[in-house]
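User: tokens in, sequence out, please.
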């Protein structure tokens, strides 16, 4: 079975071709066309501009994905497309493209939840999910920070989420304040790796909501704490590389501390057998390393699963995998498929 996966939920135009034979997944192509250069100027994603770029790029990315997969369009058996959550004007570009294509090829469409896709990409490498469930899933990206209890594929319960900014959004805003560039997460990670003289002064930012016995997050306050610290420093300090390194290290650690503590608490409360990570922020090496260390120390029998770096950020393959696992939802009633910017898991 050949499954097409399309994602245009944010600022990447993504198309992938996945072949499924029995229980074997064969990735035929996975093309991501990034709009980073365009949005860099604004320090964030500009939805109408992103929509225009998706419209221009999607047919080209689709052709490239088909060519690289060495298939013909009419070999596609199933189309899957992100219906939400995401930026509404952007989502519609993918949804409308999928509908036109599915009509032409007379194949059904599976509307995919982007958050579920960030989770299910982990199942690309797993032959069975039995020993991993129930799992606590942490999806942490530029648009979302959610803790989800997964009982089985298709059965999820949202147990906590951010009340304001997502963790990736916090990195993006702090990086912008420090003049480190866009997207902020990779820039914060890069600066956090530089060494500081041990005599340099120290900063401690808050770990928002870490003591609250719920699974919610809040990263807007952390961003504001960084802003206040920044404003009280002399210009010479603010502009120095050392200060940028110090802030990057501390803001990254504050985010990691909260994410790890709440995830582990959820694992214990719900007797989860695994932690499944997904979303752009999971590219962060320090986050991966500290999750591994904490799991080893605190929960040796809980498995930690995360995707390879390139599959943490948005891609079409995660949509194709999610489409395959949800193939019973495939429909040819195309009028019912709509963009749902606030789609819940
Ligand atoms: O999953 P994603 O591609 O898009 C959304 O669904 O939002 O995630 C993008 C987010 C951005 O906020 C970006 O700054 C963050 O992931 N990110 C990182 C790293 N790479 C990307 N955050 C921390 N460390 C990284 N290495
Ligand atoms: Zn995403």
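Assistant: Sequence out:
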């Amino acid at each position: 079975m050949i499954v097409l996966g399309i994602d245009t939920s944010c600022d990447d135009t993504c198309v992938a071709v996945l072949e499924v034979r029995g229980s074997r997944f064969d990735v035929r192509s996975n093309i991501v066309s990034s709009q980073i250069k365009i949005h860099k100027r604004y320090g964030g994603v500009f939805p109408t501009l992103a929509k225009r770029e998706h419209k221009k790029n999607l047919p080209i990315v689709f052709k490239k994905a088909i060519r690289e997969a060495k298939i013909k369009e009419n070999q596609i058996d199933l189309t899957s497309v992100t219906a939400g959550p995401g930026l509404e004007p952007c989502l519609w570009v993918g949804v409308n493209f999928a509908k036109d294509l599915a009509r032409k090829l007379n194949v059904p469409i599976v509307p995919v939840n982007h958050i579920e896709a960030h989770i299910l990409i982990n199942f690309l490498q797993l032959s069975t999910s039995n020993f991993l469930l129930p799992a606590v899933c942490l999806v942490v990206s530029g648009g979302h920070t959610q803790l989800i209890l997964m009982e089985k594929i298709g059965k999820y319960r949202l147990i906590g989420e951010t009340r304001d900014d997502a963790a990736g959004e916090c990195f993006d805003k702090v990086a912008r304040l420090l003049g480190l560039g866009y997207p902020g997460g990779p820039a914060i990670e890069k600066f956090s790796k530089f060494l500081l003289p041990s005599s340099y002064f120290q900063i401690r930012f808050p770990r928002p909501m870490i003591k609250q016995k719920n699974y919610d997050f809040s990263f807007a306050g952390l961003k504001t704490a960084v802003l206040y610290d920044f404003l009280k420093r002399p210009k010479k300090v603010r502009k120095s590389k050392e200060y940028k390194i110090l802030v990057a290290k501390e803001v990254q650690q504050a985010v990691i501390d909260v994410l790890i503590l709440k995830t582990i608490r959820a694992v214990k409360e719900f007797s989860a057998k695994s932690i499944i990570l997904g979303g752009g922020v999971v590219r962060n090496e320090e986050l991966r390393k500290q999750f591994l260390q904490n799991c080893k120390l605190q929960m040796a029998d809980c498995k930690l699963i995360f995707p390879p770096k390139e599959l943490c950020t948005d891609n079409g393959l995660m949509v194709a995998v999610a489409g395959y696992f949800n193939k019973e939802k495939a429909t040819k009633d195309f009028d019912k498929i709509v963009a749902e910017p606030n789609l819940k898991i």
